[in-house]
Design a protein that fits this description.
Helices cover 75% and strands 1% of the residues. With 325 residues, it is an all-alpha fold.
């Protein structure tokens, strides 16, 4: 994925040129910290890709890409507080390095900064960009609330879970692609198709993230492996295990997910992973990742772009499906 690396390099340079040097430092240092932790930079590169495949310029899409990345990291700062997560990308989370109040306030500032990057576009483009961005931001918040609600519910269904991850994760992927298409000036029909391509890939991406949370390499994953199990989250792996498992597996898993996280949770994580494998849930999750990716590919093949650019989009989808970090 040489082109993807190119987008990442261009965006990284833009990010470094936009380090915040304003006062107060205790507000902006955490912003620079979380943005400087690296990560895959997938969402902003999709904005650049969305503009590029439709014949727009990468340079014109950089401010929108920055808005997407700042918003995404804002959501991570607040998510980490809600999850009491100690690590993000292998480093201390903002609220751990500073404190919870700083994490909340710096996160709030990031949300405002995201909109300020969109203000750099002329009024004709600004309005549709902000309309899409605001819709997406609201959906992300709704998805996060569903995620929180599911932690205390015992009757979460797989369709409900898929709706939650669509809002919490996938809509921002679709938004990133569509904003690039908007900047390239393509018709609404093409904008909607690449949004749908991104949305489906976003669901696949989150399912892969769920899988890696349990089965990923902690040195590569950058987060605490087994975090979803410790927090008793009703992920696709968990729900599929209840659906596919026998009575003993289902009963054991439900009991495990009633335990509160205290001290060393290694045994709990290990037991859950055994059930995920034995019930067929792990394999079913990988099948679902493949299904959503293939549905996205079908839409990519309908786009009014060159064959070379279709292959770029398909290659990106394959990369997401096969990632291990």
């Amino acid at each position: 994925m040489e082109k993807l690396k190119y987008y990442q390099t261009v965006f990284q340079s833009f990010l470094e040129d936009n380090v915040i040097t304003e006062q107060p430092k205790n507000l902006y240092d955490p912003v620079n910290y979380i943005l400087g932790l690296g990560g895959k930079r997938i969402r902003p590169t999709l904005t650049l890709m969305g503009a590029d495949v439709f014949g727009g310029t990468v340079e014109n899409a950089l401010n929108a890409a920055m808005a997407v990345e700042v918003f995404h990291n804002f959501s991570l700062v607040h998510d980490d507080i809600m999850d009491a997560a100690p690590l993000r990308r292998g480093s201390e989370t903002v609220h751990t390095k500073w404190d919870i109040n700083t994490g909340i306030l710096s996160g709030d500032a990031m949300l405002i900064l995201a909109y300020q990057y969109l203000e750099r576009y002329d009024s004709e483009l600004f309005k549709p960009l902000v309309k899409l961005f605001s819709k997406t931001a609201r959906e992300v918040c709704e998805g996060q609330q569903y995620d929180v609600d599911f932690e205390t519910r015992s009757d979460v269904t797989i369709p409900e879970y898929l709706h939650m991850i669509e809002y919490k994760t996938a809509v921002l992927v679709g938004c990133a692609f569509q904003m690039g298409a908007m900047i390239a000036g393509v018709p609404v029909e093409d904008q909607q198709k690449i949004y749908e391509f991104g949305r489906l890939l976003g669901v696949a991406f989150q399912l892969q993230d769920d899988y890696l949370d349990a089965f990923g390499d902690p040195k590569k994953f950058g987060k605490q492996v087994g975090g979803d199990i410790i927090e008793n989250k009703k992920t696709y792996l968990y729900l599929k295990a209840l659906e596919l498992g026998n009575l003993e597996e289902s009963f054991s898993l439900e009991r495990l997910f009633q335990e509160k996280a205290i001290g060393d949770n290694t045994e709990k994580i290990s037991k859950a992973k055994v059930i995920f494998n034995s019930s067929g849930s792990a394999a079913a999750t990988q099948d679902a990742i493949k299904q959503y990716t293939e549905e996205a590919f079908a839409i990519a093949n309908e786009l009014n772009v060159s064959e070379e650019n279709k292959q770029l989009l398909l290659g990106f989808g394959t990369y997401l499906m096969n990632r291990r970090v």
